[in-house]
């Protein structure tokens, strides 16, 4: 049943993103940013962690989980280190994902040639 709910929740998040692209005529950058902010707001309200507990990868794989990670890391570090923890927590939690994206993007650029 866990796989079913992961599929449904992840699919719904993707449907929301696609509707934003098609129906609201937003650019991909605006849609991505909006979904990150939605994830951040839901985590700030304490609603994203229960969604992760319910849907598993269906809630952690989409871009909304990046917003969740930003707020979650900032709040955890703020409790330990005060105001400076807000800034350091954001980078501490997301640095592995961002670093991986940069490294694999670079490696892909070395292997593949763009069509232009």
UniProtKB/TrEMBL annotation:
<feature type="transmembrane region" description="Helical">
    <location>
        <begin position="83"/>
        <end position="112"/>
    </location>
</feature>
<keyword id="KW-0472">Membrane</keyword>
<keyword id="KW-1133">Transmembrane helix</keyword>
<protein>
    <submittedName>
        <fullName>Stage V sporulation protein AE</fullName>
    </submittedName>
</protein>
<keyword id="KW-0812">Transmembrane</keyword>
<dbReference type="Pfam" id="PF03862">
    <property type="entry name" value="SpoVAC_SpoVAEB"/>
</dbReference>
<dbReference type="InterPro" id="IPR005562">
    <property type="entry name" value="SpoVA"/>
</dbReference>
<dbReference type="InterPro" id="IPR014204">
    <property type="entry name" value="Spore_V_AE"/>
</dbReference>
């Amino acid at each position: 049943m866990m796989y079913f709910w992961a599929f449904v929740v992840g699919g719904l998040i993707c449907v929301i993103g696609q509707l934003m692209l098609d129906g609201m005529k937003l650019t991909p950058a605006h849609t991505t940013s909006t979904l990150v902010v939605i994830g951040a707001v839901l985590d700030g309200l304490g609603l994203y962690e229960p969604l992760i507990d319910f849907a598993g990868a269906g809630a952690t794989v989409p871009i909304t989980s990046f917003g969740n990670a930003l707020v979650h890391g900032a709040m955890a570090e703020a409790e330990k280190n005060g105001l400076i923890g807000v800034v350091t927590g954001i980078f501490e939690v997301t640095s592995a994902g961002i670093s991986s994206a940069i490294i694999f993007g670079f490696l892909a650029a070395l292997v593949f040639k763009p069509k232009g």
